[in-house]
Specification:
The chain is an alpha/beta fold and 347 residues long. The chain has eight helices and 17 strands. The strands form three sheets. It has a nine-stranded mixed beta sheet with strand order 2-1-17-16-14-3-12-13-15. A six-stranded antiparallel beta barrel has the order 5-6-7-10-9-8. Helix 7 (308-317) packs across helix 8. The mean pLDDT is 96.
């Protein structure tokens, strides 16, 4: 399988630069695997599109304001994306002007108003994957990111983050801090929509997968099989796993909200379709040919050309159906990617 087989042309004006005016007021394209059809709806229709024997799984990871600007001793401004803590308390970071960022260089970080913060950082390691390990002078937890951090909007959103992104780029059920990108399928959910689903007798369970920066990285290999996925950490509590295992055994449909929930459930499931590995690091790469062990249906956004996420939805629904649905969505001017409209892939 070739990466270029997953390319499609997308008019730039269809890449959503802002969220919808009101959360949950997005369009929804139903992709029906059983009938090989796709139909136009809106997100408020979602509960009515669920089978009555469904259970829903969401990713409750919370996005950290992980993009921070620092000034070097020579006066140059560098952008840091704080990915997560390492074994020695240093932070693993992606940095701009990477080749110039050598071990031993120090930086003064900037607050939101552009003033120097009290916290400085020093690069203590240059890592083989191109990242840098940065030790902070004061590590006070989230206080540093509250003062200096910016919402880590994806690179195809061509604007600076705003105060509204602090809420709109976060799901209403976000709890556990740790992601550097939002599990964006969940951005369509409102408290009232979730209440409506629960009123139908459909339970909503939470898992956690902290989304890494690799979610933005393109597939650079010619052959799909040669691509190596980034690693992300996931957790499922024992009570949730027990409930989901029972639901699966009873023939309930497992509806994943977002590809991050899919990767969590498929990583945790054994060959018998039972959740057994409840915490760990996963680099699972789901592409056509993969046999799903646990997930039946998927609510997700539209994905970028040649991306691992486009390959994942093609594995679930079939590449031809996905590309036909995307072609229709482009013709009907659906809004694409993180702040765009949704698809519901149903079996």
């Amino acid at each position: 399988m070739l990466t270029r087989d997953y390319y499609f042309d997308l008019p730039p004006e269809l890449i959503a630069q802002e969220p919808s005016e009101k959360r949950g007021e997005d369009r929804l394209l139903l992709i029906d695997r059983k009938n090989g059809t796709f139909s136009d709806y809106v997100m408020s229709d979602f509960p009515s599109l669920l089978y009555k024997d469904s259970v829903i799984v969401v990713n409750n990871s919370r996005v950290r304001k992980a993009r921070v600007y620092g000034v070097s001793e020579t006066g140059g401004t560098v952008e840091f994306l704080f990915l997560g803590k390492e074994y020695d308390g240093a932070w693993k970071c992606m940095v701009t002007k990477t080749k110039k960022q050598k071990a031993g260089k120090t930086y003064r970080f900037l607050t939101h108003d552009g003033e120097p913060d009290s916290t400085t950082g020093i690069i203590i390691r240059e890592n083989a994957d191109g990242t840098r390990s940065v030790k902070l002078s004061e590590d006070e937890g989230e206080g540093f990111f509250t003062r200096c951090g910016h919402v880590p909007l994806p690179p195809y959103i061509k604007r600076e983050d705003s105060w509204s992104d602090e809420t709109r780029y976060q799901t209403v059920y976000a709890k556990k801090m740790g992601s550097v990108a939002s599990p964006t399928a969940g951005l369509h959910f409102t408290e009232s929509l979730m209440a409506e689903v629960r009123k139908m007798g459909i339970p909503i369970y939470e898992v956690t997968l902290h989304v890494g920066a690799g979610t933005f990285l393109p597939v650079r290999t010619e052959n799909i099989e040669d691509h190596h996925m980034h690693t992300e950490h996931y957790e499922i509590d024992a009570e949730t796993a027990e409930a989901l295992n029972k639901a699966k055994k009873d023939g309930k449909r497992i509806v994943s909200i977002g590809t991050t929930s899919v990767r969590t459930l498929e990583s945790a499931a054994d060959e018998n379709g039972r959740l057994t590995k409840l915490e760990g690091d996963t680099s699972i790469f789901i592409h056509p040919g993969y046999s799903f062990r646990f997930v039946d249906d998927l609510l997700t956004n539209f994905h970028t050309p040649e991306s691992t996420l486009l390959m994942l939805v093609s594995a679930l629904a079939g590449k031809d159906l996905i590309f036909s649905a995307y072609k229709s969505a482009i013709e009907k001017k659906y809004r694409f990617f993180s702040y765009g409209d949704a698809t519901f892939i149903r079996g």
